[in-house]
Amino acid sequence: MAGTPHVLQLGGGYVAITLSRALREPIRRGELCGTVVSRENFHAFHGFVGEMVTGRIGPGNMLSPARRIFPPCAVHVAEIEEIDLTGNRVVTSRHLDGVRTTLEYDHLVIGLGTTENLEIYPGLAEHAFKLKAYADCLRLRNHLLEMFELAEIESDPEERRRLLTFVVAGGGYSGTELAGELADFARLLTSREYSRIGPDEWRVVLVHHGATIMPEFHGTSSYERGARAHPRLVAYATRHARALGVELLTETSVAAATPNEVFLSNGMHVPTRTIVSTCGTRPQPVLEALGLPSDEHGRVLTDRYLRVEGFENVWAGGDCAAVAHPHGGTCPPVGLYALKHGARIGSNIRRAAGGLELEPYDYSAFAAGISIGGRNAVGEVRGIPLRGKAGWILWRAILVYFLPTWDRRLRLLADWVIWPLVGRDIVELEHAPRSDYEVRHEVFDAGETLAHVERPVRYIHVILEGDVELVRNDEVVGALNAGSHFGRKVLELHPADEARAVTRVRTLSLREDQAEKLHDLLASAGRLRARTASFEVEA
User: Fold this and answer.
1) Which among 91, 166, 303, 380 has most CB atoms closer than 10 A?
2) 501 sits in which H/E element
């Protein structure tokens, strides 16, 4: 309806769920209209990431369709390109071809969450698995299964160990939960489907910079002040993780990651093909570009009504917002808080539209918890600590209650009932279509082998940064630097046994067959340019 105030919600996360519910009646009465801008047409419930990547629940059962949870708000699936706070408009682009659309608003709600900080250590962006986006979680699920498949047929003990070593960086909620689930998963797989892998061959390593894992339960969180500490829960989770087989390395951080190993701050290095990063976030780039007032974590500062400081019609909630906690500090980046942020923003927009006084945010989460593997959990409800299988059941019941749709609740319950009878889902799914060219960015540390004749690889590396030496019988027979390329044929030509990094090396790698195809394509393009230039000269 022309002239109806328009509420534009950026981000299809937890804030959008309760905001849409709060605006449902005024939208139906024609007093407001709303639009949710989301990158995907689904909402991912991250409380079940650990169970999804380890096959306890189906990959799609942690997702809820956007067009079932956001109506009567309209759903706009696109990338956010620009936010114009002066002109009250947002520019989006569609995934297909980048065609842009301009959306105008009367009230803007920012619920964009955060993204991974890829600059914490070298190699994180190139080699670490992340858990923020659903596509990354699904990719990790497939990778884990691939590692077991490869290890089953690998005869080299060193490579076999590398394939079966899984490093998790960050011992907060996410990292502790994933490490426990991974250890439980490996135990089950090697006792059933992968019988050629011994129970002592796999390894799960949890690396955390603090003195204890789960700082959220130890009263050392950097967000909420006055949070009750539960050291006994931390001690229980620590003992349980070790009993499952998790190696805990506290007061240690990851210094660098390569395709072959992880280097730690204590001087150790762990040969592995799998590193999962659950530490370090930063604001979304489109939000950073606005230059809004923010705290030390880069989160947008809001007033007690959840309006962005300095604006009357711009609101913020969820992980990207520094919302004052009623007990001091700010709300931690947890889904329960984001849900309440969206509800309060929605009610205050309704009150603002009706000329009523706004209500301050005053919610404190009533529960917190995580699964720690083996159908055990630690948590607290209203300050009462819970642990073990009873805690797991109660915490799962709380999470199911907050799932946005009934169909996903039923599917999850069905998965939990069925998998103990039939086993975990170990089907490796193709999560994305293969492109014409499989290009990868890789980082190698000094002294590391990039290619070896005994294990010929099908990739050609183009050196972007650093120096590489070609070695035969421990003697250097050639040197390569930025701009050079090497692969199987270069090793055979010199001849050399291996290509070894002299310094930290960054490469761009391409499959050998694709490199030849690309070379022919570029050669044809070069000949075409030459003919075009000759035509222009003749003209």
Assistant:
1) 166
2) strand 498-501
Distance of CA 236 to the CA centre of its chain: 27
Q: Where are the beta strands (DSSP E) in 273-349?
A: 274-277, 281-283, 300-301, 314-316, 321-322
Could you tell me the two tokens for 134?
């659903």
**Is 524 buried (19+), middle (13-18) or exposed (0-12) by CB count in 10 A?**
exposed
User: What tens-digit pLDDT sequence spans the chain (539 residues)?
Assistant: 457 999 999 999 999 999 999 999 999 999 999 999 999 999 999 999 999 999 999 999 999 999 999 999 999 999 999 999 999 999 999 998 899 999 999 999 999 999 999 899 999 999 999 999 999 999 999 999 999 999 999 999 999 999 999 999 999 999 999 999 999 999 999 998 999 999 999 999 999 999 999 888 865 555 655 566 788 999 999 999 999 999 999 999 999 999 999 999 999 999 999 999 998 889 999 999 999 999 988 999 999 999 999 999 999 999 999 999 988 889 989 899 999 999 999 999 999 999 999 999 998 888 888 999 998 999 888 888 889 999 899 988 999 999 999 999 999 999 999 988 888 989 988 655 556 677 889 999 999 998 888 876 678 899 999 999 999 998 999 999 999 988 888 888 888 999 999 999 999 988 887 777 776 766 776 666 666 666 555 55
Give the DSSP H/E element, type plus range, for residue 419.
helix 406-422
For residue 410, the surrounding DSSP H or E stretch is helix 406-422
* Nearest one of 202, 44, 67, 211 to 137, comparing CA atoms: 44
Phi, psi angles (nearest 5°) of residue 188 = -65, -45
Element (H, E) at 270: strand 269-271
* Backbone φ and ψ of 524, nearest 5°: -65, -40
Q: Kindly provide the b/e burial profile for residues 3-33, where b requires at least 16 CB atoms within 10 angstroms of the residue's own CB.
A: eebbbbbbbbbbbbbbbbbbbbebbeeeebb
Residue 30 to residues 3, 26, 69, 70, 71, Cα–Cα distance (Å): 10, 6, 19, 17, 14
Chain position carrying tokens 């959306």: 103
**Residue 445 contacts residue 504 (beta carbons within 8 Å):** yes
**CA distances in angstroms from 95 to 41, 80, 89, 323, listed in the order given:** 12, 11, 20, 32
DSSP code for 256: E
- Judge whether 154 and 165 are in contact, CB under 8 Å: no
Q: 403, 396 in Cβ contact below 8 A?
A: no
How far, in whole angstroms, is CA 533 from its chain's centroid?
Answer: 48
* Sequence-ordered alpha helix ranges (H) in 223-282: 231-244
| Helix/strand/coil for 169 | strand
Of 389, 371, 28, whose CA–CA distance to 177 is shortest?
Answer: 371
171 phi, psi to nearest 5 deg: -105, 30
Nearest to 169 by CA among 46, 265, 240, 254: 254
CA 344 – CA 358 distance, rounded (Å) = 10
